[in-house]
Amino acid sequence: MKSTINHFFCFLFLFLLSPCFSQNQEIDSLLTLLSKDRKDTNKLLHLYLVSDLNETIGNYDEGLLYGQKAIDFSDELIFDAEQEKDAQTISYAKKFKGKAYNNMALIYFGQGNYSASLKNHTIALEIRLSIDDKRGIASSYNNIGNIYYMQGNYAEAISNYFDSYKMREKIGDKPGLATSLNNIGSVYRIQNNLEKALLNFQTSLKLRKEIKDIKGEADSYNNIGIVFNDLKDYSKSLDNYFISLKIRKEIDDKSGISNSYMNIGSVYASTKNNQEALKYYFLALEIQEILGDKAGTATICNNIGTVLILEKKYSNAESYLIKAKNLAHEIGHKEYLRDAYLGMTTLDSVNGNFKGAFENRKKFILYRDSLDNEETRKKTIQNQMTYDFEKKEAVATAEHKKELEKQDLVANEKSRKQTIIILFVAFGLLLVLVFSGFIFRSLRITRKQKNIIEKQKNIVEAQKLEVELQKLMVEEHQKEIIDSIMYARRIQRSLLPSEKYIERNMKRLNTKKVNK
Q1: Number of C-beta neighbours around residue 58 at 10 A
Q2: Between 280 and which of 265, 272, 307, 483 could a Cys-Cys bridge form, CB atoms 3.0 to 4.6 Å apart?
Q3: C-alpha span between 336 and 296 (Å, rounded)
Q4: How far apart are CA 164 and CA 177, in angstroms?
Q5: How does pLDDT run across 31-74, given as a tens digit for each residue?
């Protein structure tokens, strides 16, 4: 078995190192840009990104270093911008100052330094509230809830989770809503309200599939597996764990991979398959130690110690349980302390150290009761009721607003129709006036033309009459001439011999000539 585990460790070490190269290249590129950056917002952005990338790959010291540099530089930008009254730069610098504090808080959280993490998240929240960065505010509430959850303060945890959820509802942040549902489900699961826990996890999974949040899907499958493990449905539990592990390997989520290994190991431990349980626990432990995750390391060490007790390897079990207890004390995690003292109680009992078992049992009960007491449950229920009431009130307000809007729409529609009718009537009257004006103008023109025609007709008739008079005068004159001519002709005819007479006399004269 030892050689098999060593083989896994060698493979895992190479597997973990390979993805870091691309991110290290990004960091190197950003550092090159930083060496050329002027004192402006680009430099602030690059400082933050270097810190963020270092946090992602678990290079916490560099992440903290550049996070602090980003904070210091943002203060310089804010001071200069205030002198110049540059509101845009002030807002930008404050936003990234909040992001830098948030990133440093995440690093401290990863290191298990919850007090430092809470301090930085609180500062980030104050900055985000001052600039009304709603998305950032929701994120800060969620992150603060995570710290309280890790400290076993579930009432404060769920209170912050609900604050985050309500803000994310307002801004329509679906990825954030899925995260909040997941975290609220985790609190219900700790308090053994498995039905509500499963409902929240499944709702979160559905939402994450809808928005194609691959990493979130893996987390939801993992949490659904935890609930089925609590319900002792180990087959369904393993199915969900292996789906989660497959996704986490595809996206190279090292912390998630470790978490999946640990949970798979827990199922095998529950089914008494100790060898498989230890195999997956050691795979998880190797990753957590590389990442420097104290909380994760404490959990896995406790699990390994518990299985080793069953394997009757008491000396090895003790070393892992002590390590788990020390790490849990270091980070102040009550849940892990509870589990560590339970493991120590079991170990002392099998070793016959009943005094030690009694002392450890008392501490186990102390931490167990501090985590799950009536007051804590009441606060959780109160938070849920407060949220439900606010949600119902919001729905009622929304419905009332909708009804008012509907009434406004009806009134506006009625007013619009009246306006349209008035406009149509006015338009009709305008058309009548225009048409009347056109007819009146046409009548005037027609009357004017008629008058002109009448005048022209009168002129023509007068001219015709004059022509007729002239014609009569001409005819009368012609008649007088003709009468004169006829009269003269009659006189002429009466005085001159007729042609026959002349002709007869000419013949007579001609006859006389011949006879001579």
Answers
A1: 19
A2: 265
A3: 10
A4: 8
A5: 888 888 888 889 999 999 988 888 888 788 999 999 999 999 99
* DSSP summary character for residue 498: P
**Count of all residues that appear for the chain in the document:** 516
Rounded to whole angstroms, how far apart are CA atoms 299 and 262?
Answer: 9
Whether the Cβ atoms of residue 101 and residue 71 lie closer than 8 Å to each other? yes
pTM: 0.57
**Alpha-carbon torsion (466, 472, 478, 481), positive or negative:** negative
Q: What are phi and psi of 317, to 5 degrees?
A: -60, -45
Tell me the C-alpha distance between 199 and 262, whole Å: 23
214-236 per-residue burial string, b: 16 or more CB within 10 A, e: under 16:
eebbbbbbbbbbbbbbeeeebee
Residues 6+ apart with CB under 8 A from 261: 245, 280, 281, 283, 284, 287
- Asked if 196 and 222 count as a contact pair (C-beta separation under 8 A), the reply is no
Q: Which two tokens stand for residue 353?
A: 């150290």
- Residue 127 CB contacts under 8 Å (≥ 6 apart), including other chains: 94, 97, 98, 101, 133
Give 3-state DSSP helix, strand, coil % of the chain, rounded to 5: 90, 0, 10
Mean pLDDT over each residue of the chain, to the nearest integer: 81
DSSP string, 191-225: TT-HHHHHHHHHHHHHHHHHTT-HHHHHHHHHHHH
Q: How far apart are CA 210 and CA 204, in angstroms?
A: 10
